[in-house]
Structures are given as C-alpha cells and as structure tokens.
Amino acid sequence: MDRIAQLNEFLKDSPKDNFLRHALALEYIKISEYARARALFEEILTESPDYIGSYYQLAKLLEQLNEPELAMDWYVKGMEAAKAAKDNRAYGELRAAYEEMS
Is the dihedral of CA 7, 11, 13, 14 positive or negative? Predict the structure, then answer.
C-alpha cells in the first residue's frame, strides 16, 4: 500500500487527526498535488490554529505557488501562534523564513 493510501486509511478512523492530515499534505506535495496539500493545511489551521508546524509548510507551499503576500501572512500567523505556545524553535524558523522573503 502506498503512503497516501495508507494515510487515507488511517484517516477513516481518525478524520481530524492533525498529524495524519499534515503527513498526507506533505505526501501530496511530493507528487505535485498542490491544491490538495494546500486545502489540508488550511483545514488544519482553521480547525486547530495551535498546530504550529503546518504554518511553515503552508507558507512554503504558497511561496512555491508564487503567492508571496499570502505566504507572508501565514508566516506572521505562525509566528503569533508559536509565540503564544512558547515554541521558540518554531518561532525562529518562521521568522527566518519570513525575513528571507522580506
């Protein structure tokens, strides 16, 4: 069973599992299914704004899709969420990526 099918199978039992949805989005990126990946990341962050890792991945995807303004917005949202969660490592990664775009 391929990784995408396996993740989708797991999601049948736990459809709101952010770890699984995030992993699935990353798999979609690998096969250039960018719209599916983007939708998953946006769904995760709408439902669970404290799921910090998805901010970085969504913003990077938006950079790749040539949507820099939107990417920067997600980096800012991610920095705010990381700061609130006291996740200094994630905050630093998001800030570095944001500054690289500025």
Answer: positive
